[in-house]
Amino acid sequence: RYAVLYMQDGQNLFSDALAFGQEWQVDEHLARLGALGLEAIVVGIPNGEAARLDEYSPFTDAEGRGGRGDAYLSFLIDELMPAMARQYRVTGTRETTGILGSSMGALISLYAFLTRPDVFGYVGAMSPSIWFAEAAILQTARAATLDGRGRIYLDIGT
Question: Side-chain half-sphere of 53: how many Cα atoms within 13 Å?
Answer without folding.
Answer: 12
